[in-house]
Amino acid sequence: MNANADEKMASPASVEVDVVVVGAGLSGLSAAYELTKRDPSLRVAVLEAKDRVGGRTLTTTLKAAGGEDVWDLGGQWVGSSQTHIMALIQELGLEVYSQYDKGKKYMKLGDNKIRTFTSIPALPFWVLIDLYFLMRKIDSMSSQVPIEDPYQCQYAEKWDSITVEEFMQQQCWTAGAKEAADCLFLILGGADCSQMSLLFLLAQTNAAGGTGAVFDSSQSGQEFKVKGGTQQISSLLAEKIGKQNIFLNHPVMTVTQDDTQVHITTTKGDVFKCSRAIFTTMPQQTASMQFNPCLPAEKLELFKRMPAGYIVKFIITYQTAFWRDEGFSGEIVSSGKTDLLLGVLDATSPNGNPALVGFVAAKHAVKWSSQEASKRKAAVLSAIAEFLGPQAEECLDYVEKNWGEEPYTLGGPGCIGGTGCMAYYAAGLRKPFKRIHFGGTESATAWCSYLSGAVQAGIRTAIEVLHHLRPQTVTQEELKQTAYCPDSAQKKND
Amino acid sequence: MNANADEKMASPASVEVDVVVVGAGLSGLSAAYELTKRDPSLRVAVLEAKDRVGGRTLTTTLKAAGGEDVWDLGGQWVGSSQTHIMALIQELGLEVYSQYDKGKKYMKLGDNKIRTFTSIPALPFWVLIDLYFLMRKIDSMSSQVPIEDPYQCQYAEKWDSITVEEFMQQQCWTAGAKEAADCLFLILGGADCSQMSLLFLLAQTNAAGGTGAVFDSSQSGQEFKVKGGTQQISSLLAEKIGKQNIFLNHPVMTVTQDDTQVHITTTKGDVFKCSRAIFTTMPQQTASMQFNPCLPAEKLELFKRMPAGYIVKFIITYQTAFWRDEGFSGEIVSSGKTDLLLGVLDATSPNGNPALVGFVAAKHAVKWSSQEASKRKAAVLSAIAEFLGPQAEECLDYVEKNWGEEPYTLGGPGCIGGTGCMAYYAAGLRKPFKRIHFGGTESATAWCSYLSGAVQAGIRTAIEVLHHLRPQTVTQEELKQTAYCPDSAQKKND
């Protein structure tokens, strides 16, 4: 009944292990790996609804100048301050390379004027000042938001009842700054600013180390890429865990727990019994499973209000990196107000195969999805040609990945907190529910929604479980960092 | 393989019908009934995940002064302007009776002062003025929001990026008015005002005919109750449809459609093939099913952001309606700021068995859920005793229903639109997706989230389907009222 033999299986099976991990994305696999690494005697089963491991990472092969090469259609960037993913990459023997960002960049906002710049956007002075103060304000506010439990911030209630859109309307006095910030948040979250709680944005920003780290491609947000693609991380982890322990095409249907065991039944009727379970599925997916006893109200109220964003990613390969020859970095930020194109970066592979990567997100991606594939491709190429010249239309290969259409994921890159639910954030995302522990990058306290957050959250859940099953393998220091239920979290509401 | 024989079924079955209706709540059953009533030759199958029909209605038996009697733990109120449910009640031979509202009412707000009143709350004059202007403002704004497609309103974008909480903070200049309005919206939606898009509230209010109709128990919102309970409506509909056509315990897993058929597979592996399908499941539940091809982006983005509210309803039965004897109506509105109790009304049965009904909602219900059952009961009784005297603690029976714990429903009374998703409301909720039509009370254009809306939406989907399968049974006039895709809906965004 392993991943390969799955199709042949005739009747429902019953499997008993120590720990069941639900979700074979980076977080679930990190949890399973950490468990088996610390104690190889632990029997672990990983259940995955899809037919592959890797979750929101996905590496694909495209036609390239040198024949063919691989690119990432899902999560791809890592950075030096993203310690959890960097350590794992090193441990697995993978290598990173820098995001190319030399040369001039392009920006187009609502006034339709194409501007080039190197470090500081060539926007009117007053727009730059406005943007600078907005980002400084966000940094200053976000530093007041505790990462473990954002609702402990003294302005939590107020900031959680305002959307990012409303906040920017109040703060920005130039249309340009508002539009530039709109673009950045849209690409970052895959959601419109009107769909995002201000407190959620502030917590995410703080967890990443500030707006600079998030947005500046020379900093940790988009600093490095992984040679050969990020899905390798999951594939290598799956090998280490043992493929016979990973059950693909096994969507979870019901979850029943009592004082001694958790019984997890998949849609095919297979039953997995375990002492502890780790759920790394996305919040709304977890909420759609049938829990008995049912999920605590605080989890449910958060999960229901943390939908995935909506993002389409495209990769375009070229014969030459013509933009580099002409002194451009390949970076384009184009206001969603005037067209579909939102963000483009150089994606030339470490083998030197030239490419660009770009994103369409949120409301733009919704419109986008309703068009025919050929029209979408033509629209992207002509939009890029507006900046980089007609050569942009002569590509070798073009592929797009609509994460909203990905089964069991239904969006990306991360899940976005709507207004009015952050009160449940700490207890909803991280607090164990009897014998069930909760991971997934959304529950991370550093770089949540990033690859690194997925690893951090996975390791945390492994430590929580080991604390119960193999207490000798975890230190008091590690246990403190689980922080899954800060005592302070309840105080304010009681 | 009907509802009763279901347990005996050994191997997956394959059923072929003309129409599959998913969901045996009031909307799905209304759709199936309308289909078979107009053309008895139509083969219809209704799939239901739960082990009962009735959805968000649920009637239960309690100890009562006269031995025992029945009360509604789910949706219960109907009103004379709710034409769809009133016609159905008459057709089914059921009777309604008036909500008792004679005598003095109680109100307690953040100042902890208990006030009694008959028609106008005995609040300070300036609070009343403030509340009056707030409601007038909401009525005036909501009349500008087209019910079929709220996003056609000229302020749609702005109003959809503001929460109801933020709007009230801006509008109210007294704490009392803000608190009173908070209570009303909280009970109405089962969600905190910070979780609700202002545009969504305005559209809902307009669909119900204004704030007066919604809040005043003498008007249509809470005008009548159904003798014997509202679940009878679904039970009687199920009989008319034929119990052999209703498949309980059949949660839908995958939905595949091509140019000729829809194939719906349940979690047990049964396959239902049909020409047209009607989904009346709640938005987030529908989103969690596997559609192939996948749901259009506009549906997905709306469904992900329309979570169910969270509400706990309790019924308390008494030997005597002592509050009536003392000149009180039984109505209590108590600010959630000071305690758990939010809303209470007289629930004396048409047989004269005295009772009270009450609600705890949203953040109060979340705290509530984490307490022990005995403590919850004691808290409710002592809170009511604060208003009605010590007799309130001497009840015959007490029952509570936490709708957040109801499988496949996960909340109530309705689903609440978060900020930033109303642009997809018309196309997301009502536009058919190839051979699949969408009902459910959330998609109604009159009294949505009410019982009447469920019936209206069910009949609309039936007419849509009949238009394709039995065109001679529908009139042009009826077809116009389907309005599932107003031409105007796209114009603004294109």
Topology, element by element:
Two copies of one chain form a homodimer.
Chain A: E1 14-16, E2 19-22, H1 26-38, E3 44-47, E4 59-64, E5 67-72, E6 77-78, H2 83-91, E7 96-98, E8 104-108, E9 114-117, H3 125-142, H4 156-160, H5 164-171, H6 175-189, H7 198-208, H8 211-215, E10 224-226, H9 231-241, E11 246-247, E12 252-257, E13 262-266, E14 271-274, E15 276-279, H10 283-287, E16 290-292, H11 297-303, E17 311-317, H12 322-325, E18 328-334, E19 343-346, E20 355-361, H13 362-369, H14 373-388, E21 397-402, H15 425-430, E22 436-438, H16 451-469, H17 476-482, H18 488-491
Parallel strand pairs in A: 1-14, 2-3, 2-15, 3-11, 8-18, 12-16, 15-22
Antiparallel strand pairs in A: 4-5, 6-10, 7-10, 8-9, 12-13, 13-14, 17-20, 17-21, 18-19, 19-20
Kindly describe this structure:
- Two copies of one chain form a homodimer.
- With 494 residues, chain A is of the alpha/beta class.
- Chain A folds into two domains: 5-54 and 230-304 and 418-491, FAD/NAD(P)-binding domain; 60-75 and 99-225 and 309-413, Polyamine Oxidase, Chain A, domain 2, CATH 3.90.660.
- Chain A has 18 helices and 22 strands.
- Chain A has helices at 26-38, 83-91, 125-142, 156-160, 164-171, 175-189, 198-208, 211-215, 231-241, 283-287, 297-303, 322-325, 362-369, 373-388, 425-430, 451-469, 476-482, 488-491, and strands at 14-16, 19-22, 44-47, 59-64, 67-72, 77-78, 96-98, 104-108, 114-117, 224-226, 246-247, 252-257, 262-266, 271-274, 276-279, 290-292, 311-317, 328-334, 343-346, 355-361, 397-402, 436-438.
- Chain A has a seven-stranded mixed beta sheet. Chain A has a five-stranded mixed beta sheet with strand order 1-14-13-12-16, with no helix packed on it.
- In chain A, helix 2 crosses helix 16.
- The relative contact order of chain A is 0.20.
- Chains A and B meet through helix 5, helix 10, helix 11 and helix 13 of A and helix 5, helix 10, helix 11 and helix 13 of B.
